[in-house]
Write a structure and sequence with these properties.
9 strands; RmlC_Cupin_sf; RmlC-like_jellyroll; 6-stranded antiparallel β-sheet; 2 helices; Cupin; Jelly Rolls; mainly beta; single chain; Cupin_2
């Protein structure tokens, strides 16, 4: 393992686009696992723009991350919900929907759940 690693999301190791151009996931591959920066554009909703890619009824990824900008509503399958915004640290268990609030893109960094995120089912 390298003593120091410096990577930039603007030249990510991998970029995965969302349906209808409603955002993307920029992924950095590290010795300690993938780290992702998702840009969710205004109007993005998991059930509309990632459900067709994931092939599940709700998001089954666990997330541990930080909201850089924008706002997002997250609703668990059991109805529990939260609104997250700039500066918020958040953990989300599998089984949820989410959507962007307002007219600003929501930028979210995730250290746990983006390795298999937005990968077409069966890939």
């Amino acid at each position: 393992m390298a003593a120091i690693v410096c990577k930039n999301f603007d030249s990510a190791d991998e970029t995965r686009p969302f349906e209808d151009g409603k955002g993307r996931l920029d992924l950095l591959h590290t010795d300690r696992g993938p780290v992702g920066r998702a840009v969710f554009e205004p109007g993005w909703q998991w059930t509309q723009h990632l459900k067709p890619i994931a092939g599940t009824d709700s998001c089954q990824a666990a997330h541990t991350g930080y909201v850089v900008s924008g706002r997002m509503k997250i609703v668990m399958d059991d109805g529990d919900s939260v609104e997250a915004g700039p500066g918020d640290f958040i953990t989300i268990a599998p089984g949820h929907d989410a959507w962007v609030l307002g007219d600003e893109a929501c930028v979210f960094l995730d250290w746990v759940g983006f390795g298999d995120y937005a990968v077409p089912a069966g890939s």
